[in-house]
Amino acid sequence: MIRKITVLLAFTFCIYNYANAQTNHEQSGWFFFLNSTKFNEKWGLHFDLQVRSHDDWDGIRSILVRPGLTYFIKPNQNATVGYLFTSTFTRTDGTPNTTLIEHRVWEQYIISHKAFTGNLSHRFRLEQRFIEKPSGDAVFAQRLRYFFRHVQPLTHTESGFTKGPFAALQNEVFANIHNKENTNNHFFDQNRAYIALGYRFSKKLI
């Protein structure tokens, strides 16, 4: 059994949201835990947990729990199907605080390859979203997401990148492909860009 764990704690995170025909800049805390367990050559388990804060780190805004079952097509390709539960704690001046629940079914395909002396991965994810509205009604919508991540080791070793400092560049684009009228009424939902420096302690952690 092989496990790979990613832990990310971001103190500042900027989301570019196209809702309301403008760009909203938010600074929030974001804790991200990812565990990938491989049972054998073909099957594995995906799990990630995220906790995000309100703007200016003023309390918890949302909690996401996302398990999934992964099939490894090739060493550099895999497909996953899973479920997501998320609760969002909304706060609007003049109205009571509310908690909105969303359930998702999701499918994704990941392919990775060498780029320069690092590794570049591409992830395509389709989500079927069951979204609770403040009115108490639930709507169904679908969203497509494309994500790429490049990890560039900052030291060179002949045996491959198993330990040491690295730079990471990633970006994710969200597109509402079904029922955008009941989400934010825009085809392009969000764009999330991230640049970081990190240190890999072993081949099981990155």
Automatic annotation (TrEMBL):
Superkingdom of the organism of origin: Bacteria
* A Pfam family hit: DUF2490
Record keywords: Signal
InterPro entries named among the record's database cross-references: DUF2490
| Residues spanning the signal sequence | 1-21
The entry's protein name is: DUF2490 domain-containing protein
Q: What is the lineage of its organism?
A: Bacteria, Pseudomonadati, Bacteroidota, Chitinophagia, Chitinophagales
